[in-house]
Structure formats: C-alpha cells, structure tokens
Amino acid sequence: MDMKYVPTTCPYCGCGCGFNLVVQDKKVVGVAPWHRTPVNEGKLCPKGNYAHEFVNSPDRLTKPLIKKDGKFVEASWDEAYKLIVSKFKSYKGDEMACLSSARVSNEENYLMQKFARAVLKTPNIDHCARLCHASTVVGLAGAFGSGAMTNSIADIGESKCIFVLGSNTLEQHPLIGRQIMLAKKRGAKVICADPRFTPTAKLADLYMPFDSGTDVALLNGIMQHIIRNGWENKDFIAKRTKDYDKFKEVVMKDTYSLENVSKITKIPAKDIATTAEWIAKAESSNVLYSMGITQHTTGVDNVKSVANLQMLTGHLGKRGGGVCALRGQNNVQGACDMGALANVYSGYQSVIVPEMRKKMIDAWGCDIAEGKVGLTVTKLINTLADQPGTVKCVYIMGENPMISDPDLHHVEKGLKNVEFMVVQDIFMTETGALANVVLPAACYAEKDGTQTSTERRVQKWRKAQDPPGEAKADWQIICELGKAMGYEKQFPFKSAEEIFTEVSKVTPSYGGMDYTRLEKPEALHWPCPTKEHPGTPILHKEKFSHPDGLGIFTPLEFKYPAEVPDKDYPLIMTTGRCIWQWHTGTMTRRSENLEREEPTGWVEVNPEDAKALGIRDKEKVRAVTRRGQIEIGARVTKDIKKGVVFMPFHYAECAANLLTNNALDPVASIPEFKACAVRLEKIAEAK
Question: Is 167 helix (H, G, I), strand (E, B) or coil?
Fold first, then answer.
C-alpha cells in the first residue's frame, strides 16, 4: 500500500486553514492535521475535517457534455472546443460575458479575466464577490485606499475589545472564532450585534439584538456618544485623516442620539453607550464583520461607517486593531486581487485609466477590451432577463448563480435567454443544467495553484491525485481554449507556477512573490512588492493607501432597507450559512458526514411570532415574498429576535434565494440578501 501526506489549503471559507490530504494508492482518502500552519495550527472545523469526502464522489463530471435535442451527450474535448470556438467567434465582445470563481485558484481567476479581455474582447467579467464583499472592496478602498482586511487573523487574538457586527464568526469562520475566544481568555471585551443569538453572540460580554439593516444608525449612535464624551483619538484624526468636520456635522445630528438610535435599532440606549465606551477606551479594538454588513442596498455605507468608527478611535495600523472584513469563500479575496471584476485588472488597476489598459496591452501582447466598466454579475442577470438579445453568450467557471443569486425566478429567466452558455465545473450544477456545453474541471486536490485568504495571505494548493476521467484543471482548459481561439502567445503556460510568474509581473501587490517563497507554511501577505519584502500582515501602519496617505471620513445618513415589513409581509427575513454546509452545497452536500448533520433547510422563528401564526416547532410552513414562495420546516427558537426570520441559503429544494430581493447597492451593485419583507403561512392540513 502506497500512502503519503500532501499539505494543502482548505477549499471552503476564507480562513485559509492548512491540512494534509491523506493519499492512498494515488487517491485522496482523508484529511490529517498539518500543525505547522500559522492560521489553524492543525485544528480544523467540521468542513475542513471532511474536505476530502466530495473529491472522489461518483457523480464528478468526467467528460465534456454537449446538449443535443435538449439532452446532454458525452463528447470529446476536440468536439467541445470546436463548437465553443465557432460560437465564441460568432459574437461581438459586448454580446459576451464571463463569470469567474471564488472557488478556483488565483492563477485560474487571472487567466479567466485575461481570456475575457484579451480573447473575447469583452469588458463583462465578474464573479461572486459581487454577491458578498463588493461593498467591502468599494467601501474600504474609499476610506483607506485599499479594499481588504487590514490586520492578520492572529491579531484578533491580541485585541482588547472585539466588536462583531454582521458575522456569526464561530460558525462561518470557526478558526477565526477561536481567536475571539483566545482574546476573551486574555481579558478582551467582546461585543456582538446580531438579530440572532448565534454561538458568537453567546460568547459575547455584551449582546445587542437589533433589526437587520439598521447598521449605519447604530454606528452613528456609537460614534456620537464617543465624540460627546471626548473619547475620540484627536491625535490620530489630526495627523492621519481628513474630512472629519464634514463627518462630524452629520453624526452629531439629533437623529443619532442614543434615544433615537435605540428607537431605530431596538437596542437599549445603555447598551449602545457601553459599546461606545468599551471601544473608545480600549488599548486596541477591532471590528469583525461579514455579509451581515455588506449584503444590503446600503452595503457601502455600512462598510464606510465601520471605517469611520476605527478612524475616530485610532484603532488602525496596530496589533489588535483594524477592520477585519471576513471573506466567505476560500478565494474571494484572490479572485478580486486577480482582476475578476468588471472595473479593474489584477491588483485593482482601473480599466478606465488609459495607462493601466496600455500596461495590460503591452504585457499581453495584443489588443484588449475597451477601457470601460463591464457588466457586474447582478447587472448581467438583469440584462439577460430584461433585455434579451443584448448579451447572447456566457462562459461560467465554477459559479452556480441558480442557487447563489437573489430572486432565482429572475435568474432562471435570464439564463434561459442566453443563446449559448458554457459551464465549467466539477459537478453538474443547477446552472450547468441550463448550459449548452459543460466542461469537467479538476478540484482543489487535483491541481497546483495558490489562493488568497481573508487576511491577504497567499498560500499554495498542492496536487494530491489526478482528476477523474478526462477532467482537466481550469487553467489548462482556458489555455487550450485560448490557443484554439488563435491566442497561442498569450496562453503558453505549462504549469500554474508559470502563470503565477506573469501575475507577479503585472500585479504590484504580488510583485515580490514566487512559488519558492510561498512554499513555507507561513506563506506571504500582500502587499509584497519586491523579492526582499517580508509581506504585510498589518496595513496602514504609518499612512493609508491613498496618494496623500490620509484616511477619508465619510458623512453618512441612515437609510432603511429597500423593502421593509408591511401588513402583507410583516416579518424581516435574513439569510446566511450554517457550520455544516457551505455556499450552494455543491461540495458539502456530497459529504456524508456533513450532510447527515444538516440535510435540509429551515426557517428560524421567534416563539411569539410562531404563537401568533399558530406554527409549531418542526412544522412545515410556507414562506412568501413578493418574488416567490417555498415550503420549509420551522424552527421555533428564542435565539432569533421577534419580527425577524432566518434561513440558510444552501438548499436547492427550499432555496432561500427564491425569496430574496435583488435590489442593489447603487455603488457596489451588491444585492440586499440580508433584509426583505416576508410572511409565513401555516399550511392547511389535508382533510
């Protein structure tokens, strides 16, 4: 028996935990601890412990599939490529769009945006960061000049005060949750604001249940109380920021007094005051947030409010401080870094700046898409549904919008309007079922590459086994398609490492990285501009990333969500993940151990709401919004605020996103997953 351990990085959340894949007779059979990794030190959450179980699932895609007369038939790679190339060449650039993936490697995301812009000449390239942290990229870049988590995961454990807002960290990022527990053990105060009494909230010294979508009001109230008491960091404000007076003029309005904010948020005024005092007086304090902050029509405002709070108190550029935007998927940070966004090339180099476009033309050796912002994934879906024939051809790699996007009836309408669609994935997905061609891809265990975690740590995947059947790595497929389209010189790569070498040449923040430097378990945090640079675990130590080095305060008024409860839809619905499942369930639902724990979805209901509706625990109910309805089991629990209901979004059979609102943040184009109006109905028993 041949057995070996192959160290790699977890394919699930953004923590970037390392582990060993156990390989027996050239097949992945298990996971074992890798104690040298700094993020998790050998410890893993349930998803990491069972990250091997889907790899050799019997329903992996193994051959290219072409739809003929409404049914998929197996085809050779040559046949699939021939069809794809003939179709791709028949459309103009603006008639095409590509969706990249937060689940594939940096190298593959880089190639997908290069393929879109250099080969297809389309500016329409985006990925699911648009659905989770687009508002972080925009909001933090506006405030600090860089749209990423400011501090390392280890820093959280050093903090003296942790404010968790819009994140159920212990379930969604368990190994970051461990750092909160370590900080608390060392004496830190922990504050949690959430409509649900989550495991994270249960850990807190102060828990504040509040109405989803009232974050700006809460943060403005906290900041007004800090300023009224003279607790702001005057030295930091004077030396390192600008526009403070404009910000102060808004935040000091009577609207944001403790009493008025208490009425808006339903949080007792004394708890808001305590929060303000703990944060302002702490030696170091950080804010941890995730999609509870970002997935709103005011997502950018929410993020900028967090930035305002941390600048006001001077908790930036130091150990234990910072703004910790926790990324939900393994490589959503990397996909953004690589330019798989509608408005930037790799390294956040703007497509509308002529010098940046020329840089890419020179680097790639060919003409590229016009220097304009393309369609985001949310605007693409709206265009497909509402303006059929505008975008005719879509190429999707590793994304499943038929589960992950809001208002799924609208998504289905849009995707069915596409003339020609290619989906590249490891399993047949709900989106793949609508495609004309499906290409079988390799998973994380079957290829080399890198991914970038939520703390900007660039880490390696290492190949542990061959892909099943005729499946190929995504980078290999893109290279072969690029060559077939006539771009041999642009896609000459024979390995992921060769691609990364090009990435480092054109991406300043990755400029000093190479595979040799990334081999050690610690890897490197970007920015790492030169070969001698040690990487940057903490951003903004002496200056911010704006040209003048100053952070920018933004005056922000509170706005209610796009849809608020009324007599027809009297409850607020919010969505999220559970610890046992991940995203659209494509991988975790093929893991026997994970699926056994949470095999289907549910709706959490407060006992008072349940009593008023005559709903019993575990009873199946009908959830209805203006966009659709589903039948789903009820969980009656005191762990959710009265007037609010919660659903996980992993389950196709009771898809929460059939109900969610596709109203968008006007700046980041992110949908409002976290607040929509809903009603629950008791299902009449058959007589």
Answer: coil
Tell me the C-alpha distance between 273 and 267, whole Å: 10
- Please determine, for residue 322, whether its predicted confidence score (pLDDT) is greater than 60: yes
Q: Identify the helix (H) or strand (E) that includes residue 4.
A: strand 3-9
Which pLDDT score is estimated for 407?
Answer: 78
For the segment 439-457, what is each residue's pLDDT rounded down to a tens digit? Answer: 999 999 999 999 999 999 9
- 665/586 same-domain check: yes
Residue 666's domain comprises 571-682
- 77 SS3 class: helix
The pLDDT score that the predictor gives to residue 687 is: 46
Buried b / exposed e across 524-537, counting CB within 10 Å, b at 16+? bbbbbbeeeeebbb
CB 451 within 8 A of CB 9: yes
Mean pLDDT throughout 365-374? 96
- Nearest Cα neighbor of 285 from 308, 314, 244 is 314
- Is 288 within 8 Å of 191 (Cβ atoms)? no
In our burial notation (b when 16+ CB lie closer than 10 A, e otherwise), range 576-615 reads bbbbbbbbbbbbbbbbeebbeebeebbbbbbeebbeebeb
Range list of H helices, 282-395 = 291-294, 299-313, 332-337, 354-364, 377-386
Q: In degrees, to the nearest 5, what angle opens at C-alpha 472 toward C-alphas 467 and 475?
A: 130
Nearest to 645 by CA among 663, 622, 667: 622
**Whole-number Å distance between alpha carbons of 305 and 325:** 13
Question: Model confidence over 38-78: pLDDT tens digits?
Answer: 999 999 999 999 999 999 999 999 999 999 999 999 999 99
pLDDT > 90 fraction of the chain, expressed in percent and rounded: 87
With 0-12 / 13-18 / 19 or more C-beta atoms within 10 angstroms meaning exposed / middle / buried, residue 543 is middle
Lowest model confidence (mean pLDDT) among 288-297, 344-353, 356-365, 402-411:
402-411
DSSP of 206-234:
EEE---TT-HHHHHHHHHHHHHHTT-S-H
The whole-chain average pLDDT of the chain stands at 94
pLDDT digits (tens, 9 = 90+) for 550-570: 999 999 999 999 999 999 999
Report if residue 531 sits inside a domain: no
Domains contained in the chain, number: 4
Token digits for 229?
Answer: 């008491």
Query: 355-360 long-range contacts, Cβ below 8 Å, gap at least 24?
Result: 359/506, 360/117, 360/118, 360/506
Q: Are residues 433 and 474 in the same domain?
A: yes
Based on the fold, state whether residues 315 and 342 are members of the same structural domain.
no
β-pairing, 420-425 vs 393-397, is parallel
CA distances from 97 to 373, 391, 396 (A): 12, 7, 8
Q: Does some domain include residue 539? A: no
The closest alpha carbon to 20, from 36, 111, 78, belongs to 36
Q: What is the pLDDT of residue 167?
A: 94
Q: Which spans in 314-407 are helix H?
A: 332-337, 354-364, 377-386, 401-404
pLDDT of the residue at 162? 98
pLDDT digits (tens, 9 = 90+) for 385-425: 999 999 999 999 999 988 877 778 888 999 999 999 999 99
Inside any domain, residue 222: yes
- Phi-psi domain of 643 (left: phi exceeds 0; alpha: psi -120 through 50; beta: other): left
Q: Write out the DSSP string of 590-613.
A: G-HHHHHH--S-EEEE-HHHHHHH
Residues 6+ apart with CB under 8 A from 520: none
